[in-house]
Design goal:
Strand order of the largest sheet: 2-7-4-5-6-3
Strand content: 25-35%
Largest sheet: 6 strands, antiparallel
Helix content: 10-25%
Number of helices: 7
Structural class: alpha+beta
Shape: elongated
Distance between the termini: 67 Å
Number of strands: 18
Radius of gyration: 31 Å
Length: about 375
């Protein structure tokens, strides 16, 4: 071939001697991470039915509340009503929340307690309606008969499984042609759809809810699992509600109060904090003002990956699935995402009736959230 003297910049991209230069990578910008699922890991066992159940139990309560509006104006009353008289026995020492006075229970009739005020020489203090009463313990008489047996009943709780599916279909021509950056189009489509299903599973685990009727599903009703947020109803903290600090911008005081609130109600310690990007920056800000740097440091670090308090060492997880105004406080040892036996994500080839290969990615999963009172959430926070 004779010398032409042409340069690449004068040849033009359409000339046959100029080969295409395409990087051997397909870049994906859409979010597909599943940080919460990655943190929880694979479940130790599968679910055995479309309705997965587990057992929970509690100890006999050691606190109750006064349910007697008249106690506010009756001075140092020697009898008053409580919300649950069955929690108390004659011989109990009780104490009102925030009070140093000890009270001795001398009799229980329904929900009415007869008591000795200022027990043991303690100073009598005014009680109020809805005040919490702590049962310190019971004093038995020497040589007395055994008291009436008391016990708690185990409860069965459960959640429905939800089917996640995505179809894959690739034409024969698409399979035959040589492609840039992709060795097998069918495998590539499987990977893409699986990423999407995993992303959807995490979002459903956090936010999903079951239908009000026909929860088992039918030919016209789709079966859906109940997620974390709709399940958590006991330890819900919101600015300005029930004494929680009114600041809508998350503070370390609020986070600690919420962790303490869960700790007071349950025998667990929160080990996982899950939040979105805005609230994660608020948590990072806890340490910003107290950071110091040497003159030779040129890197600014402002990130909290682990938050340690008296009430637990918490891994801070950043997840797009959590609403912007919410922070989840979880005990990960009581959380599992279980596949129905034999129904973890898999590819099922489908019969082809034409010039294409077809299949379906299928997975069926449920959330097992044990002891709802062992978790909590903060809601109603500022979002900007």
């Amino acid at each position: 071939m004779s010398f032409t003297g042409k340069a690449t910049y004068t040849a033009g991209a359409t000339l046959p001697e100029i080969a295409e230069d395409v990087a051997d990578i397909v870049s994906i910008v859409s979010p597909y991470e599943t940080p919460l699922l990655d943190h929880l890991g694979d479940a130790p066992r599968p679910a055995g039915s479309t309705y997965h159940e587990w057992l929970e139990d509690t100890l006999l309560p050691n606190k109750d509340t006064i349910d007697d509006p008249g106690v506010d104006s009756s001075g140092f009353s020697t009898s008053f009503d409580v919300a649950h008289g069955s929690y108390f026995r004659t011989g109990d020492q009780i104490q009102g929340a925030g009070s140093k006075e000890l009270i001795f229970v001398t009799g229980v009739a329904g929900d009415t307690l007869s008591v000795t005020r200022g027990y043991g020489g303690t100073t009598e203090e005014t009680l109020s309606d809805s005040q919490t009463l702590h049962i310190l313990g019971n004093a038995a008489l020497e040589g007395d008969d055994a008291p009436a047996a008391r016990f708690s009943s185990r409860t069965r709780l459960g959640n429905w499984t939800q089917i996640f599916t995505a179809a894959v279909r690739v034409s024969g021509s698409e399979l035959a042609v040589r492609k840039l950056s992709v060795a097998d189009e069918l495998d590539y489509q499987k990977q893409e759809r699986l990423r999407e299903l995993l992303r959807d599973l995490e979002n459903t685990v956090i936010n999903g809810i079951s239908p009000q009727a026909t929860q088992q599903g039918s030919g016209t009703v789709r079966r859906t699992m109940k997620g974390i947020l709709p399940t958590l109803t006991t330890n819900v903290f919101a600015p300005g509600v029930d004494g929680f600090p009114a600041d809508t911008n998350l503070t370390e005081l609020q986070l600690n109060l919420a962790l303490r609130g869960v700790w007071e109600n349950a025998s667990s310690r929160i080990d996982t904090i899950v939040c979105n990007g805005y609230q994660k920056r608020r948590i990072n800000g806890f340490i910003t003002s107290s950071r110091s740097y040497a003159s030779n440091e040129d890197a600014f670090r402002d990130m909290v990956s682990v938050y340690e308090s008296d009430f637990g060492v918490c891994r801070v997880i950043l997840s797009r699935g959590v609403p912007t105004d919410t922070i989840l406080l979880l005990d990960s040892s009581r959380l599992s995402v279980l596949p129905l036996a034999g129904r973890s994500f898999h590819y099922k080839p489908l019969a082809s009736t034409g010039d294409y290969d077809a299949g379906e990615l299928i997975g069926e999963y449920t959330l097992e959230l044990r002891n709802e009172i062992a978790h909590g959430r903060i809601t109603g926070l500022a979002t900007s």
